[in-house]
């Protein structure tokens, strides 16, 4: 039973990564009708929303695209910064979606930012407490580890509406500004949906692992 469980929590993220990379590879070869590179897409949407203070920079790495709220910067991987594909446009618009969320103080984004210190602490120390609690048979220590882990799980769950909302904003922006045509909407949505799978997979695995530990704690507490 445990072998099946661990196979599932390993396969879910691998499947999500496979889908993301496969979809991105496919649509990074499909040029957008506007022929705008990702950097231009990001700048167009930012300026249209009055976010002239938000910068757009190139960053190293594969699919390392992100928005940095501290420096107010959209960072795009080289392939998307210089690329004029449907995938590059979709990802650039998605990251700008986070910048718009930040400017409008989107509630879930603010909540996620507030959870970062607690979630980081939970991710770093929860497993230490969990392992010691299980090995030593200390239910109270295991429970403390579960509490820390729960904070990290909440962070994963709050990330979902943040990411889906950013993708929704991205679609609205690239359509309204004529960056893609109507017949390109399906391809763009596929790129955004595939990217969202990684967050869904991470959240699903986190919830499953938390539930497993709660069951272990319940059994230990019952035997004490």
From TrEMBL:
The keyword Signal does not apply. InterPro entries: Zn_peptidase_2. GO terms for biological process: proteolysis. The keyword DNA-binding does not apply. The chain crosses the membrane at residues 125-158, 191-217. It comes from the Bacteria. It holds the Pfam family Zn_peptidase_2. GO terms for molecular function: peptidase activity. Keywords: Hydrolase, Membrane, Protease, Transmembrane, Transmembrane helix. PANTHER family: MEMBRANE PROTEASE YUGP-RELATED (PTHR36434). This is Zn-dependent protease. It comes from Bacillus canaveralius.
């Amino acid at each position: 039973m445990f072998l099946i469980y661990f196979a599932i929590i390993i396969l879910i993220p691998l499947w999500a990564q496979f889908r993301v990379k496969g979809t991105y590879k496919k649509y990074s070869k499909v040029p957008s009708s506007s022929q705008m590179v990702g950097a231009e897409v990001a700048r167009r949407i930012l300026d249209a929303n009055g976010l002239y203070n938000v910068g757009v920079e190139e960053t190293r790495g594969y699919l390392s695209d992100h928005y940095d709220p501290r420096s107010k910067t959209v960072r795009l991987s080289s392939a998307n910064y210089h690329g004029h594909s449907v995938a590059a446009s979709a990802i650039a618009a998605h990251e700008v979606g986070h910048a718009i969320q930040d400017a409008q103080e989107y509630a879930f984004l603010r909540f996620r930012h507030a959870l970062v210190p607690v979630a980081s602490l939970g991710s770093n120390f929860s497993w230490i407490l969990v392992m010691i609690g299980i090995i030593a048979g200390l239910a109270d220590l295991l429970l403390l580890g579960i509490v820390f882990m729960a904070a990290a799980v909440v962070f994963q769950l709050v990330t979902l509406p943040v990411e889906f909302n950013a993708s929704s904003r991205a679609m609205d922006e690239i359509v309204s500004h004529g960056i893609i045509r109507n017949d390109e909407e399906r391809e763009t949505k596929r790129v955004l949906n595939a990217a969202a799978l990684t967050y869904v997979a991470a959240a699903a695995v986190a919830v499953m692992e938390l539930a497993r530990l709660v069951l272990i704690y319940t059994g230990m507490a019952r035997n004490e």
